[in-house]
Amino acid sequence: MRTSRIIYLVLAFVAVTLVFSSFFVLDETQQAIVTQFGKPVGEPRTQPGLNFRIPIVQKVQFFDKRFLEWDGDANQVPTKDKKFIFVDTYARWQITNPLQFFIRLRDERSGQSRLDDILDGETRNAIASHELLDIVRSSNREPEVSEEYMEDLEVLEKITVGREKIEALILQRANERTADLGIRILDFRFKRMNYVDEVRNRVYDRMKSERDRIADQFRSEGQGEARKIQGNKERDLAKIQSEAVRESEQIRGRADAEATSIYAAAYNRNAQTKELYSFLKSMETLEKSFDEQTSIVVSTDSELFRYLKRAN
Question: How many CB atoms lie within 10 A of CB 190?
């Protein structure tokens, strides 16, 4: 009796375990296929909810239904115009047919590895088929010129394809190659591009020389403006000085004329005032012309001799 009870309990436990293991729950982020002895059975399970399988015999392979990330490695790639650049890319992809994906790739790690081969290969082919300008630019927009000196500097060459079209081309060709893998590449982008060290150093040197040329141009324009300001200053100064000299001469002339008029009015009243004026002028001339060390010879007819004789 006791042995039979134990057997019944074991059988009941096994039955309950088998019943519970016959069901599996699929959430909103998952999709799955059921395999029997390693081979897929039935249609893919893509709807969330409770699903049935035969326990022990059948197994469930789960796959992510969400958008998955692919991040490529930076590779050195030559462009059509023989310029070597490092290209770093990324993409987003999704498992659209889990049954086909399981048959061809088995798991997500294999899918990532297959995408490495496809996307890296298509990226190399696309870059090798286009020039550098088409890869780094997307449009033929006109550059914004903020200074007059930049008008000749910022002259951009025209592109024929553009970066966005190259990305779309890589995406299209990659999806053609993944059509039988049960996956779809949703988006592909260039994350970063850069020259290799040797080319980058040459680019930096060219940028420096260009900036030095602009600096020399600024310097030359500044020196020209400084000379212009200096010339205007000297011209204005000379004009101010000449006007001041002219005005001072005019004032001095008017003063002399007025002084002369006053002298004339004062000394021209009678014979005595005229004699006094003549005497004062002669004395001023004598004082300005001679000193204690000067010897002079004057004639007896000289007015100066007459005054000196009278003084003695």
Answer: 19
What burial letters (b/e) apply to 104-117, b meaning 16+ CB within 10 Å?
bbeeeeebeebbee
Q: Does the predicted model carry a pTM greater than 0.85?
A: no
CA dihedral 49, 55, 61, 64 (to 10 degrees): 20
- Where does the chain have alpha helices with state H? 2-21, 98-104, 108-128, 132-136, 150-153, 163-177, 197-267, 271-289, 303-311
d(CA 312, CA 303): 14
For residue range 150-205, list pLDDT tens digits in order.
555 556 678 888 899 999 999 999 999 998 999 999 999 999 888 877 777 776 77
Nearest to 175 by CA among 167, 165, 185, 166: 185
Contact 174, 185 (CB under 8 A): yes
Question: DSSP code of 72?
Answer: P
